[in-house]
Amino acid sequence: MRTTMTGPARARAAAAVVGAILVAGCGGGSAVPPGAALPATPSAPAPAPTAFGKEAVRADLAAATAAAGLPGETTPLSPTPPASPDPADPPATDRERARDEVVARMATCSVGWSSPNGPGSAQDRAEARKRFRAALAGLVERGWKESRPVEEVPVGKGTMVMAQYKKQEWSLHARHVESGLLDMASMTATEDACANRFTDAELDLLED
């Protein structure tokens, strides 16, 4: 499920401009008169802020889920190239090829985490739900701000817990689904500027 974006979907990321600090040197030849105040020593420039990128997002997801005891794994930072089509499969349609291209591009914008999917007892599921909420609390401790309250909605014969968070220029969607034999949790963080380069038509392809 994607969040509908209003307005043009081609927003460009603003570039951060770093200004150079010029320190004028003193010319040699004129001594400082006795009793005169010494020239102030130029202060060192403040260190540039560390960029919050895919590595930092992946570290947040891994740390929050590990601290909560929630089993799972994060996606690689470099997207895996799509596998070559099986010659025995029917030729891909234009829409399928377009969707695969959008998926590959979107993968460069995102970092994800997911838990294994498998049946479990009601007690196991209750513990998994508890750990999922603990992982969400861990994200908040790491600076992720809730942008949409946690909500629980019915799905088939089960339920789905959903939550959304923001940190700097990243948006994170988390969900935990319990329905029948399905018991799965996932978190996906997407860089806003990168995602905004996609058109509504391209995003619609991801819902197929």
Order of helices and strands: HEHEHEEEEHH
What spatial form do the alpha-carbon principal axes imply?
globular
Quaternary form? single chain
Percent strand equals 15-25%
Count of individual helical segments = 5
Give the strand order of the largest sheet, numbering strands 1, 2, ... along the chain.
1-2-6-5-4-3
How is this structure best described in words?
- There is one protein chain.
- The protein has 208 residues and is α+β, with helices and mostly antiparallel strands.
- The protein has five helices and six strands, in the order αβαβαββββαα.
- Strand 4 and strand 5 (170-179) form a beta hairpin.
Key structural traits:
208 residues; alpha+beta; six-stranded antiparallel β-sheet; 6 strands; 28% helix; disordered N terminus
Write the layout of secondary structure elements.
Elements: H1 54-67, E1 73-74, H2 94-107, E2 110-114, H3 122-141, E3 145-155, E4 158-167, E5 170-179, E6 182-191, H4 192-195, H5 200-205
Antiparallel strand pairs: 1-2, 2-6, 3-4, 4-5, 5-6
Quick summary:
This protein is of the alpha+beta class and 208 residues long.
